[in-house]
């Protein structure tokens, strides 16, 4: 990475990690396009996966008292399995088809929640989790479907953020391993991640504090705002 790009990367890191700690997800909404623009698509997606994986370790620690291991286990495993498959194979799939599938799933899930069909949310969660991992391996972000999968567990906002942190850690760690093996991540990338560690702690603290203050209704608004942001990004890419 060129030295003059580092301040821009650090600014994107702070914004991404603060949002991620507030909503439980959304970091890739900022980090992936920023790094892809600065470093190129493959290098940017790979570095974003590494930084997000490291940050999710901090988030898991910050929300350690509200990690719903039992409820989230299936979701986490399916996200990891889908991510591995996506990182290895889904690069062959048409990107337009993947984008349209994610947008349709987002609209369907919003309608299901708005109309109160809780059983449908629970039944669709495992499918969304696997699809989240698969699209993450393809595009660098699992945000929309991962959010929908965990939302289907019917958790309060603290446990919801905890579950999202666990699922994000599983997916980003899987991608990091795949990209390292493929030599897309080098020692300099890991050095950048090390430099960002203090920012991870500071941003996570700020995000968790914001989450504690907004209440359940405020969090619901934040959740769907992030989801709308992902939908907008996907539509812009069509």
Automatic annotation (TrEMBL):
<dbReference type="InterPro" id="IPR002781">
    <property type="entry name" value="TM_pro_TauE-like"/>
</dbReference>
<keyword id="KW-0812">Transmembrane</keyword>
<feature type="transmembrane region" description="Helical">
    <location>
        <begin position="190"/>
        <end position="207"/>
    </location>
</feature>
<feature type="transmembrane region" description="Helical">
    <location>
        <begin position="97"/>
        <end position="115"/>
    </location>
</feature>
<feature type="transmembrane region" description="Helical">
    <location>
        <begin position="127"/>
        <end position="145"/>
    </location>
</feature>
<keyword id="KW-1003">Cell membrane</keyword>
<feature type="transmembrane region" description="Helical">
    <location>
        <begin position="72"/>
        <end position="91"/>
    </location>
</feature>
<keyword id="KW-1133">Transmembrane helix</keyword>
<dbReference type="Pfam" id="PF01925">
    <property type="entry name" value="TauE"/>
</dbReference>
<dbReference type="InterPro" id="IPR052017">
    <property type="entry name" value="TSUP"/>
</dbReference>
<comment type="similarity">
    <text>Belongs to the 4-toluene sulfonate uptake permease (TSUP) (TC 2.A.102) family.</text>
</comment>
<keyword id="KW-0813">Transport</keyword>
<feature type="transmembrane region" description="Helical">
    <location>
        <begin position="219"/>
        <end position="236"/>
    </location>
</feature>
<feature type="transmembrane region" description="Helical">
    <location>
        <begin position="30"/>
        <end position="52"/>
    </location>
</feature>
<protein>
    <recommendedName>
        <fullName>Probable membrane transporter protein</fullName>
    </recommendedName>
</protein>
<keyword id="KW-0472">Membrane</keyword>
């Amino acid at each position: 990475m060129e030295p003059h790009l580092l301040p821009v990367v650090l600014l994107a890191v702070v914004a991404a990690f603060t949002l991620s700690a507030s909503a439980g997800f959304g970091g890739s909404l900022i980090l992936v396009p920023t790094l892809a623009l600065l470093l190129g698509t493959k290098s940017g997606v790979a570095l974003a996966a590494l930084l997000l994986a490291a940050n999710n370790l901090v988030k898991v620690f910050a929300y350690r008292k509200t990690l719903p291991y039992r409820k989230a286990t299936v979701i986490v495993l399916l996200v990891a399995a889908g991510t591995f498959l996506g990182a290895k194979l889904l690069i062959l799939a048409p990107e337009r088809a993947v984008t349209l599938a994610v947008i349709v799933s987002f609209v369907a899930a919003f309608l299901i929640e708005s109309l109160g069909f809780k059983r449908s949310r629970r039944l669709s969660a495992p499918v969304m989790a696997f699809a989240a991992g698969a699209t993450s391996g393809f595009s660098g972000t699992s945000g929309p479907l991962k959010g929908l999968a965990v939302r289907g567990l019917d958790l309060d906002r603290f446990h919801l953020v905890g579950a999202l942190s666990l699922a994000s850690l599983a997916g980003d760690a899987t991608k990091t391993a795949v990209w390292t093996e493929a030599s897309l991540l080098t020692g300099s990338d890991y050095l950048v991640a090390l430099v960002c560690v203090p920012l991870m702690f500071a941003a996570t603290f700020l995000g968790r504090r914001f989450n504690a203050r907004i209440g359940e209704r405020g969090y619901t608004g934040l959740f769907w705002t992030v989801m709308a942001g992902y939908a907008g990004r996907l539509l812009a890419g069509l």
